[in-house]
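Section 3.1: Structural characterization of target chains.
Under the original work plan, the team committed to producing a structural model for every single-chain target entering the pipeline before any wet-lab resources were allocated. The record below documents one such target. The sequence was received from the expression subgroup and is listed exactly as submitted; it comprises 276 residues.
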Amino acid sequence: MTFGRAPRDLALRGSAPNVALILSFFVGHWLLSVFFQTFFLHRYSAHRMFTMSKGWERFFYLCTFVFQGASFLQPRAYAILHREHHAYSDTEKDPHSPHHARNFLDMMWKTALLYGALVRRQREPEARFEGGYPQWKLLDDLGESWLVRFAFAVAYTLVYLKFAPHWGWFVLLPAHYLMGPIHGAIVNWGGHMIGYRNFELDDESRNTLPLDFLTLGELFQNNHHRYGQAVKFSVRAFEFDPTYAMIRLFAALGVLKLAKAQVARYVPEAAPTAAE
């Protein structure tokens, strides 16, 4: 690393293999973290859109812990917050609505406080939001340990210290540390502020198609709020939900069984409104 020179072209400085390695590490962490958030925390823990054996549940629980790492989100707390979001979408009781926050960071902070209160059992949710989510006390305790979070953060940093061709690449490290909350905030902000609507609903949910590739299907929020139990989040020919494709593959391999959820379908008379 060269600390004494101003950066010229960060993508070209240093060896090409090191640039490729750092980019692969960041993209890989991003995609694996968001995949297990949408697959395990959202569609399985919060909605139970499919079922699986205890063994596979533990396997995916462990994968979520490993790939979210420093920003691991406990399935119970995630599921309760998400169920509250559906019940009170874009009202003052919504735990993460951009329409009741001063800005993006304010929304993230409010969500973090509510999440922490659930983890510490300092907030009692409504009974209807409890139950049906997986729990593994050992991993939950490890994931919420600041020592474990710090160890993951150190591991990410060591990768950059070893392979980053220039100090400018270190600007990516905060995203590694906060990957889970960042994914959730992008979905909750973008999916309720930016994009088009296939269905006219009482909330402000939208489909943020140009950014959906970053979240593997999560940004089809308008579709999801219309068909809350549909495992496939896309409903139109030009929409694609990559996580649903993986779920169908897992089902074909016998890893999981799809629940008898309602089928998401596009209704022509509910034409998309203009993007805002």
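Residues 16-258 form one domain.
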